[in-house]
Design goal:
Number of helices: 11
Strand order of the largest sheet: 9-8-7-6-5-4-3-10
Order of helices and strands: EEEHEHEHEHEHEHEHHHEHH
CATH topology: TIM Barrel
CATH superfamily: NADP-dependent oxidoreductase domain
Shape: globular
Oligomer: single chain
Number of strands: 10
Structural class: alpha/beta
Helix content: 25-40%
CATH architecture: Alpha-Beta Barrel
Distance between the termini: 31 Å
Length: 322
Amino acid sequence: MQFVKLGSTGLDVSRICVGCMSFGLPDRGPHEWTLDEEASRPLIRQALEAGINFFDTANVYSDGTSEEIVGRALADFARREEIVLATKVNGSMHEGPNGHGLSRKAIMTEIDNSLRRLGTDYVDLYQIHRWDPTTPVEETMEALHDVVKAGKARYVGASSMYAWQFSKAQYTARLNGWTRFVSMQNHYNLLYREEEREMLPLCEDQGVGVLPWSPLARGRLTRDRDVTTARSRTDEFGKTLYRQGDDEIVDAVARIAADRGVPRARVALAWLLHQRAVTAPIVGATKPAHLDDAVAALDLELSEKEIEQLEQPYVPRAISGH
């Protein structure tokens, strides 16, 4: 396993991060394709045995059961001080007022709820799950600072938003002497490269780690176009992210993978790992092969010609994933 510093911090993270949205009770939350605890634990153990130390979940994943499953598995299989554990806050956790968002009340409530479900005293990375336009950024950033100062989180991070919003949050924190974000978890893959315009250059300039979600475009980069899965058939959010007309890119991945004699996932991930700004792609796994391919991608060196073939068909598209 390869390790790298998370942005400009001293924190060592594996170059592959396990996305834990795949782990959770199927009858809790909107994702009926998730794995229950019995099916999840072998994959978490496999990731640890491969040297991965970085795990990312969220309070909303499967109505909190992702955090519960991940927390118990890591307690059984690993030493807490060796693990980098990340979770997120913003999504709706209960009906009625104050059930979601990035208010001080929501943040202070949800960090304690997440810690209880995870079975730990702290998380290493506490991330806002996108932007909250209904709460003053000063309120959010001060609350996150207080979470860090209380010892409940070591670092704070952000996720998909516009670069001006991220800049505003960072400036607000710096102006007030509050904790700044050390990472950006954004939507970035071969089918969606709009982050290259502003967000990635901003993160590079400011020393912010980049943790792309959906690095395989919800599996579109790994299979033939006419093949569907249980997730692709039921993932309503995923259906909003991509569009018709990406065939050339998908075909280029397939062609290079065939020439190399490797699965397509390795090619798509190798391209992402090649991007200078990227710290660690967040890879979801429902089968052992998914983790095998992610780890193997670290050693796959693409040629300049192959990279050109993968990138050339891309055309600009509307912002998605915020």
